[in-house]
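Example 3.2
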Amino acid sequence: MTDTSTNMRLKLPVICFILEIILIILFGVLVEYDHDTDSKLFNKHNNHHNHSDAENEFYYRYPSFQDVHVMIFIGFGFLMTFLQRYGFSSVGFNFLIAAFALQWATLMQGFFHGMHDGSKIHIGVTSMINADFCTGSVLISFGAVLGKTSPVQLLVMAVFEVTLFAVNEFILLTVLGTRDAGGSMTIHTFGAYFGLMVTRVLYRPNLSKSKHKNCSVYHSDLFAMIGTIYLWMFWPSFNSAITELGDAQHRTAMNTYYSLAACTLSTYGMSALTAHDGKLDMVHIQNAALAGGVAAGTAGEMMLTPFGSMIVGFLAGIISVLGFKYLSPILEEKLRIQDTCGVHNLHGMPGVLGAIVGAVTASVATKDVYGNGLHKVFPDVADGSRSAMYQGGMQALSLAITLGMALIGGLIVGFILKVPLLGAASDAACFEDSIYWEVPGEEPDHEEQMTVVKTEESEKLSA
């Protein structure tokens, strides 16, 4: 057995140290606190406008930030622990990628959104939330390639994906004036289809050698449900974290809340309807029950109404379960897309649904429906610079642009990740923690495998 990815003694430290040193230098040169964070600027701003410390944006945004942060590190991390011998890697690599991506995202998003006077990136609690959003998109892609990539490959993927995410986000939100508060397009659709294209390029024709490890056991599914519950609980905060304060933020949280509840019931119903002997499938419950949060992302801040958000969630649950049951096998067999976590079913299709709902809802927005609050959700429509139908058209165009950038970007990055130097587990060693981790209480056969690998590596070096 030969496995180049096991030699991480130099590869992983080199890329970790180099990336972090670059980040530290760039932060030192380009980044500074914003007016709500810098002591001198904050006091000057307060004295001029007669504001108090309690009006610092931190106090309005930090609770939402903390909820989003929990979703990124616990929610996503534990959701991917369903593989029986890949729990260390699921949580551990999630931790590694997220810690890097949030720093890189602060810079990339800052280049487009946060630079003032063309010199410095000003950061505060809102930039922290946005960086976490970008990180979430990378972790969605991680789910598609879970178990088949080395930590070095994952960090390289994050470098490029964060950059492309920031470009796509800038085009949609700034250039086109698209509304996407909860990121159905910018986060979920982009992350899912980027990851699907990467895993397509990295297709392994002999992955069947690891098929016996590409499955769950009782306790691993239970750990994955921890991630599901955390994500489900905090999703209203995720979608509403950066919306306008007041009624728009309140509405976003409420629409997401009811969408998730309706989605959960449709998920249970469809799972029992499609699974063997009418029994529930834990894969469906872990994933499809969250699809309502994804689908409510774009239209969450709009006047979707509780009734409308429940319909969206109900449909999202059905679509997601059907995707897991029928579409995933087809994608793998016909299109050679080996989607480990089924991100197409949880993030891809519900993300597209959310984008479509957002476009339709935007196209019928009127002042009669929104009142004076129209300027919070659709400022361009409120000031008469564009019609509601035009806004809806921009929303639809944004979905097409996102899909294009995700697919083309994933294609290019997939080929970059095939460089042998980056290391990748052999087909027989996929979905296996012991390739990268010191695993306590290893079974004898795994110890023997590692001994063989180390011996072969030593022989290569001596030769």
